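In practice, a research group might receive sequence data for several interacting partners and want a quick structural hypothesis before committing to experiments. The following worked case mirrors that situation: the sequences arrive first, and a predicted assembly follows.
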Amino acid sequence: MERHLKHFFILCVVLSIPIGFFIPPDHMTVWWHKIPSLDAWMGVLGALFLLGITKGIAWFAAKKEDFYD
Amino acid sequence: MIKPVPPASIFILGALLIPFLRGRLRQIYLLLVPVVAFFNLLCLTPGTTWKFHFLRYELTLAEVNRLNLAVGYIFIIIGFLALLYALHVKEEGQHMAAFLYMGSSSGAVFAGDFVSLFIFWEMMAISSVFLIWYRRNKESLDAGFRYLLMHLFGGSLLLTGLVIHILTEATVAYTPLRSPWAYSFILAGFGLNAALIPLHTWLPDAYPLGTVTGSVFLSIFTTKTGVYVFARFFPGDVFLGYMGGAMALYGVIFALLQNDTRKLLSYHIISQLGYMIASIGVGTEQGINASIAHLFNNNLFKPLLFMCMGSILYMTGKSKLTEMGGLARAMPITCLTCLIASVSISGGPGFNGFVSKGMVILAVSEAHQAILELMLRLASVGTFLSFTKLCTFAFFGKNEKL
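A structural hypothesis for the assembly, expressed as tokens:
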């Protein structure tokens, strides 16, 4: 069950990008709203970006510092 | 014909009766009071006021308008559900604190002048701290003191701003904040309750250490009252717009780093408040509507998430994600409700968060705030990530010990 859910989740993520090419964007106020599948790209790239930042903060917070050295 | 009364009075006077009731009778009473308060709210029409004279000022204990009516409805609806969740609690003190907290929050929302607002504001801080202290351990006691100290500091800022405003305008009525000093102090005073960065530290410190039911109440009122007053007094403030964007991003980044479930949710409160405040900062009619819509929806899914995590804490005694796992089988209803709330807060299509987050992003986008829109979109991605983490670790991960 858990494996099927995981596969379904990955399938949704992968399919969301090509699907976006067939759905015309609406409410365009800035140029990047015209990019096909913007939300899906934003999701994938944004997730990688945020994970990078959190990993960086976690590394910094876990760093052992000797302030008396 | 029954005359409606100020919404706050029902809960505040209702709290006084709780110690005299026992067992089933008390449980019925706890549920009956919010029902009465709800029907009272239905009888209120915009424009209704309750005024009285104090010294040489005319105080407006309550004033009804469409904005505070919308907030009042959600406070009472979700307050009823939180009381239902807390029905098993035996300590009458916790129920009294919850009632006083609900009453003072409603009082702050419906207050019609600055003095009444300040009185209810402080009552809210004092009554809510008991919901942390009732956990009865050292961490909660310390966190409660820090919470109280921060809120008294916020109250002092607010009082300073109000005194300047009252001295310059010679009225306690809600009039535009023309003095820049009054404006700044009042903004900071309200900002502490709305968890503006860097005045937010009390929130992830205190909320995870409240009682199982107390954290549910805490997630409903204090911060949302802060949002309401921002919508009432500071619409269109550019600083608030970008502060909202920063809060939305900061909240999700730090939520992703958390291992404690209720701490993760606490950081998410900051993030969701960011959406509401950014939308208020836009200042358009669409922006204010979006903010209040998100406040309404957030008050449905955020307490539900606290209820789910409280249930896990109650059943397993665990609050760390790394100590959980496999709870989908042991607690299927909690798993289902948590998934619903997680999809809602992540803005999943068909759920309420999708509508109100969409409204907020649309309002920001149509105000041509491109950077702010990007910040909110990115925060939305982070919300999805952290709730994927929460649900996977808590319900679908492997843990033989549980």
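Before designing any experiment, note the following. Chain B has a mean pLDDT of 92. Residues 235-402 of chain B form one domain.
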